[in-house]
Design brief:
Blueprint: H1 3-30, H2 36-50, E1 54-59, H3 66-74, E2 95-98, E3 106-111, H4 121-124, E4 132-135, H5 141-148, E5 154-158, H6 159-164, E6 184-188, E7 190-196, H7 200-203, E8 206-210, H8 214-219, H9 221-227, E9 233-239, H10 246-256, E10 266-271, H11 283-301, E11 308-310, H12 313-322, H13 325-331, H14 333-387, H15 393-435, H16 437-453, H17 457-500, H18 513-529, H19 533-538, H20 541-600, H21 606-639, H22 644-650
Parallel strand pairs: 1-8, 1-9, 2-7, 9-10, 10-11
Antiparallel strand pairs: 2-8, 3-4, 3-7, 5-6
Helix pairs in contact: 1-2, 1-14, 1-21, 1-22, 2-14, 3-12, 9-20, 12-13, 14-20, 14-21, 15-16, 15-17, 15-20, 16-17, 16-20, 17-18, 17-20, 18-20
Length: 651
């Protein structure tokens, strides 16, 4: 079963989920059950599903056949190599293959000189005029090949310029970047490339990240800080004829094996097994040689053998183009594709399922609580009016006085709610004082200044430690504020439920733990890559500050931005049920009082009013049944796992 087939089935499941959520949203509007908070949450869910991406990163040192592997897995149907794949270094800069329907097919290239500004790649993505745009003719394979060769372009600059751009210049034949006889260094022309290509898988949300070797990874910290950790799968490519070299091992240990401690979705590909195909050896002897290489790689990388896949990307591409099933089987690519799809698609589906289920469940409970509240209020009216049958005017007046007293008591109880709102506002301000971006901006500026002026390594390291200690401290204080808000709201929920019969349930939970883990991950990255004595001795402080701290501070800011956004959504979510239920209870009390008044004034007959309320009751019960059916339908889609059968039918 190919990755394409599984991904098509996953995309179909995602589309079906979007459709049922869209119907839920439309039903809320048609039945006047929506509110601003629910509207926003459902819209955000639909946006997330529409923009859902599946990121697969390919990482390797040069000459491991990485581009050929991408060609074999994704582009064989074009009948030729789409990505440049020749001996030596072909991918000179990190390259993203994706599809954005709002843009024409093209290659966007960020000049290497952009490093001088200190801005990150993600920041430059917001400014189109900083990129060189090359149109892509998707009707011609040869035209695409010619255009894509630009990703491999290099320029010659002086040693000082190369070092100022972040390249480590070394002597010796093994150095990637070294000074030639003219005193110049050959470096990549581009810092980053984005290929906008209407491939069927890319259209469905697949994003392929093609990364260069160790030197490029080391000089572009955003790769190891953000792009690689956020990839749903990382394929690390080795060559069967060389095994695990020292540079391979460095890439693995420093940039892949340590990605947040994750092992799921980390796959090692032992490419070029065709180099072991020896006509003088039998097939079993060749298979035994491949098995020995797999065993050696597994031992060196401390991985189980089942996570290492021996393949021949070049033979697989040739087999797919020529429809040679025997050669394709011998290339073993199908085993890798199956493993990738079986591990990648279910893991991605689980993430989407959990996020959607949590958000929808809150919206569902809120809507059901609203309907139940209306039903309770309606039935109270029915009981009151039914009890008035055959009663005199004095009894009607008594009942009217009783409801009026209940209304006054509730309004008096609202003073407690307004007091809670005041405390809630104060605690919210405290929360954002710790979690907000202003404090982080001041901390970043002071840390940068300390690092630039540092004379000794210990001062430099101390500044970084202080930066993370304060960041963690702010999250810790924010956690305390979150706990206090949650405790207060739980008490007030229970009080209003007991005293006034409101259907409030349990307040929505919220945790800052994921952001604390991210800060810890970034801190660990800095300890490994910046604060090591080797780094401090071999790089200029100013270069370290620009190349690494700037990117680290960007990632910390992003973490706090996400925490701010999620905290803001939680605060709205925890207060919205109170506001909705209080408003609904006020409306129901007003309607009960007006109904009895009209009976008292003989403007309505008792039986007519009872009949009218029975009709409304039936309508509410019908709405609750429809809501249950919608909930069951959405949960059925959520619980369905993309199976091999679906994958075959979607192909």
């Amino acid at each position: 079963m190919t990755l394409a087939q599984h991904f098509a089935a996953y995309s179909e499941w995602r589309s079906e989920l979007s459709a049922v959520l869209g119907k839920f949203s439309a039903w809320l509007v048609d039945n006047e059950l929506t509110d601003a908070h629910t509207d926003r949450r459902v819209a955000q869910l639909l946006d997330k599903l529409r923009e859902d991406r599946l990121h697969v990163a390919f990482v390797a040192e040069f000459s491991r056949g990485k581009s050929e592997l991408i060609n074999a897995i994704f582009f064989a149907e074009y009948g030729s190599r789409i990505l440049p794949s020749t001996p030596g270094r072909t991918t000179m800069c990190p390259t993203e293959l994706m599809f954005d329907a709002s843009k024409a097919p093209s290659i966007e290239l960020l000049p290497i000189e952009s490093r001088e500004s200190g801005g990150s790649i993600s920041e430059f993505k917001r400014f189109n005029d900083e990129w060189t745009i090359v149109p892509l003719d998707t009707d011609s394979a040869s035209a695409m090949q010619e255009a894509l060769r630009q990703v491999s372009e290099v320029i010659r600059v002086g040693r000082g310029v190369a070092e100022s751009l972040g390249f480590t210049i070394e002597d010796g034949d093994t150095a990637v970047f070294r000074v030639d006889e003219d005193g110049c260094v050959e470096i990549p022309r581009w810092r980053h490339a984005i290929i906008n290509f209407p491939h069927p898988l890319l259209k469905q949300g697949l994003v392929i990240l093609d990364t260069p070797g160790l030197n490029a990874i080391g000089t572009e910290p955003e790769l190891t800080l953000s792009l690689l950790p956020n990839a749903h799968a990382v394929l690390f490519i080795l060559a069967a004829d060389t095994g695990v070299t020292q540079s391979d091992l460095t890439v693995w240990r420093e940039h892949i094996a340590t990605l947040g401690g994750r092992k799921k979705g980390r796959i090692v590909v032992l490419n070029k097994i065709d180099s072991l195909w020896d006509d003088l050896k039998s097939r079993p002897e060749i298979d035994a040689e491949i098995a020995r290489q797999v065993d050696s790689c597994a031992w060196t990388l401390a991985l189980p053998e089942h996570q290492i896949f021996p393949v021949s990307a070049q033979k697989a591409l040739l087999a797919k183009i020529n429809d040679d099933q025997q050669l394709l089987e011998r290339s073993r690519l199908s085993e890798l594709e199956f493993a990738l799809s079986e591990e990648l698609i279910p893991a991605k589906q689980e993430i989407v399922r959990d996020n959607t289920d949590s958000e929808f469940a809150d919206c569902y409970r809120s809507t059901r609580g609203l309907l139940e509240s209306r039903l309770v209020g309606l039935r109270e009216q029915l009981v009151e009016l039914t009890e008035l049958r055959g009663k005199n005017k004095g009894v009607v007046e008594y009942m009217m006085g009783k409801v009026r007293v209940e209304k006054e008591e509730f309004e008096a109880g609202l003073q407690r709610y307004y007091a809670v709102r005041s405390v809630f506002s104060q605690l919210t301000n405290n929360l954002f004082a710790h979690l907000g971006l202003d404090a982080l901006r001041l901390l970043t500026n002071s840390t940068r200044e300390t690092m630039v002026n540092a004379t000794f390594s210990i001062t430099f390291s101390g500044a970084m430690k202080h930066f993370f200690d304060v960041s963690r401290g702010n999250l810790g204080r924010s956690r305390a504020e979150v706990k206090e808000i949650a405790t207060m709201m739980e008490v007030i929920y229970k009080k209003f439920a007991v005293e006034h019969g409101l259907k409030l349930g349990t307040p929505v939970a919220f945790s800052l733990r994921r952001y604390e883990r991210e800060i810890n991950r970034l801190d660990q990255w800095c300890s490994t890559h910046i604060n090591s004595m080797l780094q401090l001795l071999t790089h200029e402080k100013s270069q370290l500050t620009q190349r690494f701290f700037e990117e680290v501070s960007v990632q910390v800011r992003k973490t706090f931005e996400h925490a701010n956004r999620d905290a803001e959504s939680w605060l709205k979510a925890i207060m919205a049920p109170m506001e909705i239920q209080i408003r609904e209870h006020q409306i129901q009390l007003k309607r009960r009082l007006e109904s009895i008044k009209r009976i008292h004034q003989a403007t309505d007959t008792l039986e007519e009013r009872i009949e009218e309320l029975v009709h409304v009751e039936n309508s509410l019960l019908s709405q609750m049944q429809v809501l249950s059916d919608i909930g069951d339908g959405i949960r059925a889609v959520l619980q369905r796992t993309v199976s091999s059968t679906e994958a075959r039918s979607a192909a």
